[in-house]
Amino acid sequence: MYCRKAKLKLPMKSILEEFKCGKARLHTMLEESDDPVVKTVQPSLKTGRKWKVTEAVDEAKECLKRKEVIGQTQTDCRGLGSTTAKWWSKTEGKEKRDMIIDEIRNKVDSTRVQKAVQQPQQGQWTNWDTALQRSLTWNDIWNMAPLRISFLIRSVYDLLPSNANLVRWGKKDNPTCPLCQGRQTTEHVLSSCNVALSQG
User: Fold this and answer.
1) Full-prediction pTM beyond 0.70?
2) To bridge 123 with a disulfide, which of 53, 116, 142, 184 should be the other Cys (CB 3.0-4.6 Å)?
3) In sequence order, what E strands does 14-103 have?
4) Closest CA to 104 of 137, 86, 112, 160
């Protein structure tokens, strides 16, 4: 649910992501400190056994340097040069720290997407091409009916009672769509059934 690349973006953040970003921000601030005592001592930050802040910051720096060597790639249909890029070698201070934090966030997010792809049920949204991406704010959530929020979340994570899910849950024997005789998954019901789409 915390993935920034999901089809339904919820206004929540992972505690783990915020912990890593906070530690990385503190590490870079201490690393770039003007205080001579801090520079000579280089205090160590305790983070745990699996994740080390120094390794994460060094990896983020290397990735940013690599991106600068490779250059900017176009990700949409806008023309070349229509977007401006921040380059690692030309930034200083807070901008550099923000670039490191963004890179760590991207790394955490990509591991979430990798985990979602490995989950056959909840990770099906990674294969959806026809679904539009939607971003919710807290204001949207407060003003929305609870059943609608439930429907949105359950549809993204494929938890609606489609025939395919009912077969998986042992509630039904036949996963076919009654309209087109195809396999009735959540994606099929919401956007892929040709008969339902043609009937309006």
Assistant:
1) no
2) 116
3) none
4) 112
Encode pLDDT of 41-70 as tens digits. 777 788 878 889 989 999 999 999 988 888
User: In angstroms, rounded to a whole number, what is the distance separating the alpha carbons of residues 9 and 137?
Assistant: 9
- Residue 176 sits at φ, ψ, to 5 deg, of -80, 155
153 touches 169 (CB < 8 A): no
pLDDT tens-digit readout, 175-191: 998 888 888 888 888 88
Beta bridge partners of 8: 134
Q: Which parts of 79-153 are beta strand (E)?
A: 134-135
Print burial letters for 121-151: b (CB count within 10 Å at least 16), e (below 16). eebbbbebeebeeeebeeeeeeeeeeeebee
H or E element that contains 147 = helix 146-156
Exposed / middle / buried, residue 184 (Cβ in 10 Å: 0-12, 13-18, 19+): buried
CA distance 106 to 194: 37
Inter-CA distances, 143 with 9, 134, 156, 172, Å: 16, 16, 20, 36
- Per DSSP, the three-state class of 124 is helix
Residue type, 31: E
Q: Do residues 50 and 31 lie in contact, with contact meaning Cβ atoms separated by under 8 Å?
A: no
List residues bridging with 42 in a β-sheet: none
